Target: NADH dehydrogenase
Amino acid sequence: MISNLIDKKDIDLEKILNMYVGHNGSLIPILQATQEIYGYLPKEAMKKIANFLKLPYSEVYGVATFYAQFRLQPRGKHIIRVCSGTACHVRGGDNILKLIEEELGIKSGETTADLRFTIEPVACLGACGLAPVVMIDEQTFGRVTKDKISKLLDQFQ
Ligand code: FES
Model:
């Protein structure tokens, strides 16, 4: 099943590359389309792109690491955003982030080994009255306390 998915993504990448035959300077749009397919930029995909564009791999890698929009690691099934805006900071948001990091054994910006969660840094989530605020996928949780964290995470399998 997983290999079928990977194969399909590889085929999609081939299609994308074919769309750019003869287009110079198309590295960034190709990287964007590739990230759409895989959710990040796998090394093998970047090698294919380098081959296709006749560029050194180091140049493709360099561009991928330069722009914040590109991810070199897969993202988790669930994205956790812990607000680091002023209101949340004042009400202990940093501590909530630290506790979530400890609970999952990863740092902000990282993904758990089982690909269940990714923690992404974020500024104000626009719900300052509910500080400290945590967003998991599309759901927003306000007035998060230390005691609520485990239960909160358990909801997302
Ligand atoms: S500062 Fe956290 S929601 Fe605005």
Q: What stands out?
A: Residues 83, 85-88, 124-128, 131, 133 surround FE2/S2 (inorganic) cluster (CB under 6 Å). The chain has two domains: 2-66, 78-154. The mean pLDDT is 91. Strands lie at 78-83, 117-122, 134-136, 139-141.
